[in-house]
UniProtKB/TrEMBL annotation:
It comes from Perspicuibacillus lycopersici. This is Tripartite tricarboxylate transporter permease. InterPro entries: DUF112_TM. Pfam families: TctA. Keywords: Membrane, Transmembrane, Transmembrane helix. It comes from the Bacteria. Residues 11-431 form the DUF112 domain. The chain crosses the membrane at residues 6-26, 38-62, 68-86, 106-128, 134-152, 157-177, 189-210, 312-332, 352-371, 392-422. The keyword ATP-binding does not apply. The keyword Ubl conjugation does not apply.
Length: 450
């Protein structure tokens, strides 16, 4: 490998680690909303594909390790994937074990990463011989995936019913653009619609604030007072295998293996289901919550790694909720990447290995050490000086800019419409995975109906 390229990959891993170590701690920063736009911007900027992949993997690991910290110290999830752990983290906080909570979570992340990476690479290699068969049925599989994820959603019947109307909305806007000659006929506006879905919950919240009745009904609170417990400092590099008990290590490893094989399913749903299942037999509340958060954090990391690497290496199509979400720009970012020409077609197996080792390795070691040692200081800085509204406002601005670049001023209105609908659906319990799979399979769904 070229030395310049290697240095670029290491630099990308360091930048991704530093950036998302901070962003991950900011409450309310959803993984897809904060990782997908930056990854997309790097792809469109013409950065080397292997460097972009290294950045993405480091960002995922850093964000997943840090988004559990605000849960432990304040009961506030950093991202969507940290939400299932809130209840258990509050139990440990009530018993004065916030420090234990942080250490268990990040140690679980380490276990999940160490288990998932080899399984993902092996499973991807095993799927390569049948990848052409899978790709031939890509559209029906994406539609089937939308149905499956809808059945696993909180509001399953609404999620099922909305599949066809949402596909009509997407294809209707595309047809409108064609008829007005905004884009050439046959050109599918994709990136901005994808980002509209991603930022949907932010858009619907902003529109809520324009509603006078809704605005006046909002609860006003004084400034929150967050108390940090004193933390114990270990000498040397903290060992995750000593922080977790043998039972926690065993069940976290098993949960990670299950999560790696079920990469196509909803990451949040799988994390909640298996985490609760594994911890239910434990009667002591502290031990139960410690076991639950270790398993959930391990499983969350595993689903994100496998959901990114397996479709990328084996298929070249985003056949998982993670690939359809934060990793989407690695599959489809016209004009740079398309479903017929993306990282799957450009990079060799050796390239994927190097990007995985550098991106995940650097991020895992640095973020783990920093969080175990300095979580209190980082949280103090982030909670005091970095409002999550500012972060989300930055990404909303980027989305609107990309919408204009995709199809002009008219498309800003289209993206806001998509975002409003997606935000309402998300609020009603229709997860992003369903919406993203409908976005991909919309042309096929409408062609079948027509």
């Amino acid at each position: 490998m070229d030395l310049t390229l290697l240095i670029s990959m290491i630099a990308a891993a360091l930048i991704g680690t530093a950036l998302y170590t901070i962003i991950g701690i900011v409450p309310g920063t959803d993984e897809t909303a904060v990782i997908a736009p930056i990854t997309l911007a790097l792809v469109l900027a013409g950065i080397e594909p292997i460097v972009v992949l290294t950045f993405y993997l480091s960002a995922i690991i850093a964000h997943k390790l840090t988004d559990s910290v605000p849960v432990a110290v304040a009961g506030i999830p950093g991202g969507v994937m940290a939400t299932p752990m809130v209840e258990h983290a509050l139990v440990l906080k009530r018993y004065g074990e916030s420090d234990t909570s942080i250490r268990k979570m990040v140690s679980g992340s380490v276990i999940g990463t160490l288990v998932s990476v080899p399984i993902s690479l092996l499973l991807a290699s095993a799927l390569i011989p049948v990848s052409d068969v899978i790709k031939d049925y890509a559209n029906p599989l994406l539609f089937a995936g939308a149905v499956l994820l809808a059945l696993l959603s909180k509001n399953r019947w609404l999620a099922l019913i909305i599949i066809i109307p949402f596909a009509l909305l997407i294809q209707g806007l595309r047809s409108l653009y064609w008829s007005l000659n905004i884009v050439p006929e046959g050109t599918n506006v994709f990136i901005s619609f994808f980002l509209g879905i991603t930022i949907g919950p932010v858009i619907i919240t902003l529109f809520d604030l324009l509603n006078k009745e809704k605005r006046t009904s909002l609860v006003r609170n004084r400034k929150n007072t967050i108390v940090f417990n004193e933390t114990k400092q270990d000498k040397g590099f903290p060992n995750p295998f000593k922080i977790l008990s043998p039972k926690e290590i065993g069940l976290s490893s098993l949960a990670s293996a299950i999560g790696s094989f079920t990469f196509i399913l909803s990451a949040v749903g799988t994390t909640t289901l298996i985490g609760e299942l594994f911890s239910n037999r434990e009667k002591d509340p502290v031990k139960k919550s410690s076991l639950a958060i270790a398993c959930m954090e391990a499983l969350a990391n595993a689903t994100y790694i496998s959901g990114s690497l397996i479709p990328l290496i084996a298929l070249g199509i985003p056949l998982s909720s993670v690939a359809l979400g934060p990793a989407n720009a690695l599959f489809n970012a016209p004009p740079v990447f398309t479903l017929e020409h993306n990282l799957h077609h450009i990079l060799s197996m050796g390239d994927f290995l190097w990007a995985t080792l550098i991106g995940i390795g650097i991020s895992l070691v640095l973020t783990y050490f920093v969080i175990v040692r300095y979580s209190k200081q980082i949280c103090t800085f982030v909670f005091k000086w970095i409002p999550h509204e500012a972060i989300l406002g930055l990404f909303l601005g980027l989305v609107l800019l990309l919408a204009f670049m995709d199809a002009g001023w008219m498309n800003i209105g289209g993206v806001l419409l998509i975002g409003l609908v997606a935000g309402v659906l998300h609020r009603w319990g229709v997860n992003f995975g369903v919406q993203f799979m409908v976005l991909y399979s919309a042309p096929w769904i409408i062609s079948i109906l027509a």
